[in-house]
Fold:
Amino acid sequence: MTSTSPAQPADKHVAPQADHGDPARSLIARIAEGRAWLFLAGLIICFEVWSRLAFGATFMLNPFNLQSIAIFAVAPLLLATGQTFVIISGGIDLSLGFIMGLAAVIAAHATNMAGAAIPLPLAMLVGILASVIVAGVPGVINGLLISRLKVPPFIGTLGMFGVARGAAFLLAGGTTVPVQNSWFALLGNGKFYGVPYLVLITAVFVIVMHYLLSQTRFGQHNYAIGANVQAARRAGIDIRGHILRLYVLSAMCAGLGGALYAARFTAGAAQAGEPLLLDSVAAVVIGGASLFGGSGTIFGTVAGALVIAVIQYGLVFVNVEPFWQFIAVGVVIIISVLIDQAQRRFSGARQDE
Amino acid sequence: MNSSNQTTPLLEVRNLSKHFGAVRALNDFSMAVRPGEVVALAGDNGAGKTTLIKAISGVFQPTGGEILLRGQPVTFATPQEAREKGIETIYQDLALADNLSIGANIFLGREPMRKAFGFLPVLDRKAMAEAAKATMGRLDFHVSRLEAPVSNFSGGQRQAVAIGRAVYWDAQILIMDEPTAALGVPEQRKVISLIHQLKAQGRGVIFISHNLQDIFAVSDRIVVLRRGVQAGERKISETNHDEVVKLMVGG
Structure:
């Protein structure tokens, strides 16, 4: 999508004078901006009431529930963090799910191999590092395909989806690869004052990514490319280099996701991220990003990932058939996009049709 | 801005040619722009206007001839080099990132950074907003909400932001390719008045337009291109619409 030229006002229509003070517009804009957090609050209230009525027990104040939701959210959130950058730039990365699977298998193999030669904690680090670096390889290829060879992101990363999938299953020998490393198991299942290590690592990582997106030139250029790639090029931004780094970044986010998956289950599985890819796109969209590019935030995506995790865990908790999860998440995605479009119509934004 | 130097043109193009294979898009073309002068470039579609400005702004390498900046011969391998030497191009299609603020657009690709907590490099949004305010003030364009994305502004205001970016980076020569084409009439007037301000600041402007009314409203001289060659050059005060049209169509 980055290769399409930016939409321009084709007619000689004069935009209305900027109207900064309209309270209706800014209210809608504010609701649209924070819609993921509103969804989240609504869902939590909903499940709390349901839980109290049905079981006479609290939902949200139960620390076990909180831990479970947070753990649920970790892997899709890691994929969604990278996906947020890609979607803001106007692209999409469909290969993330199997890059995560590939990374999980690599983490398991590398930790086991290193564990035979060096102390276990070091072996664990080697495993994590290896999985993140290896995950960067399909990222580099995605980036080169899209930036140099002008392959549309949807197609390029779809191809990489297949390649990473095959590579992951081949490396895993078609099965799950168990990890023999007590430190790695502790990382995946231990807690620090009740907060799982996985959640802590993810929280720190997400804050770093928020910094990267909101406070650095890389992030600023990412927004500019998503809004108007022509303008970004004319401003002297190295589009090709940026796109390459972008897809490496998103693949490495998936790589970390794979490593943490392997820690949590003390095993690497090629299909680790299979169901998570579309969840990651959903989290980004619920979080307020536009698939046309140019808008979105990391914290919005965090809320989006939590919305999905709360729906998934909450429906199981209140004993509803699990298939309702899909329907609930689907409905939230559609409502979220409808709010986004209403807000666009109000603000008179004209970059997308 | 050096008014004592009126005789040396800011920009001079001598015998410039650009051939694409057998097609002579531009042939042996010469013109000059002096400080504080607005030179209109007129011509039918395919006359070579775009080829000329792309050669001046570093997009194309000319096949022959030379470009002189304040009397010094220059060559530009990329548009960036031309921009660094003070030649800025403003496009008709409002080349802004709509989702970013005025300041972020002015600094796009050259964002100022500051250190948060003494060590962490972060975008200096305050500096960007202040520079935006000062720059837009110089163009007599006052906005209250500097953090608003430029999509909130009208077409003329956005064109002013594009011009403001050139002014902030101290472009001495602004090439404006149909800067009013995407705008309504009141907005066109606003851009015309902006060009008057650029002129008053001693910058050189190359103004490309199909609209003779705009050309006569703002230019000092008009250079007419036809099929890649110079068909004529007139002082605006000494010509009229009919003569210019005749030059353009070759009647």
In short: The radius of gyration of chain A is 21 Å. Confidence is low (pLDDT under 50) at residues 1-21, 349-353 of chain A. The longest strand of chain A covers residues 177-178. The domain at 35-340 of chain A is CATH 1.10.3470 (ABC transporter involved in vitamin B12 uptake, BtuC).
